[in-house]
């Protein structure tokens, strides 16, 4: 998914691995329109001033359930990415993915689509005519410095859910409760969907080197004794060997559990680019604008074959140098 905010903010992101592992920090989302008069609106919990990284997780949008007759669905024209991986996970609906390395795939509930941007890629995302309700998560992973210029790639994976103590767990990245994902990542990570039956409580053994975040999709969830509302993210710092999750409600609850070793690096995010310096971000933008205008014989991002329509131009950069925040 593209960050379609018309005034793209500059974020310099750092990990918070020095914090208290016993505390649960609550991050409240902000609502963001994804462009246009009939813009699909998303709830964004990462990044924000309070916290910008959980391991390598650097971006999290939660959307729906939306009736596409009213919202217009998802229609994101070709746009670029660098220095990251996109993680698409749906609860309802269907999205058609196309990218500039020739990938053409459908994003459907319970199946992971992971796109590695690396040195540069372009892609489009459009909800299909089969979709009446659209509901899901779009997440980004920052690539560490040693891997951020890797070749672009695309992977698809359907995890087999396991049931433990009233919880249905689908591990799409990393390892949890004995289930492991074969999908390639560039730093130690965890990503899993967890559905808790009414009244269920589960204690998960986790890697104490990881920091973790739980984003609530539906229902009531308590994380280590702290209540989380819908679309809120509960964060815990490294140092825990287990996480306690509970559904105190009378209806099933669903959440995504994200985790990873603190990245240990500062990253600069602007629009759809992850880089390390002002000069680098400006170079990415200039290159993309050249490709949109058909003014280059040496494309970095490439062409999205099969998409009918225009590409998304980059927003204007500030005239002053991009500087770290906070």
TrEMBL record:
InterPro entries: Pirin, Pirin_C_dom, Pirin_N_dom, RmlC-like_jellyroll, RmlC_Cupin_sf. Fe cation binds at residues 79, 81, 123, 125. The keyword Metal-binding applies. Residues 40-141 form the Pirin N-terminal domain. Binds 1 Fe cation per subunit. Residues 193-290 form the Pirin C-terminal domain. SUPFAM superfamilies: RmlC-like cupins. Keywords: Iron, Metal-binding. The keyword RNA-binding does not apply. Its cofactor is Fe cation. It holds the Pfam family Pirin_C. It comes from the Bacteria. One of its GO terms (molecular function) is metal ion binding. PANTHER family: PIRIN, PIRIN-RELATED. Belongs to the pirin family. This is Pirin family protein. It comes from Antrihabitans stalactiti.
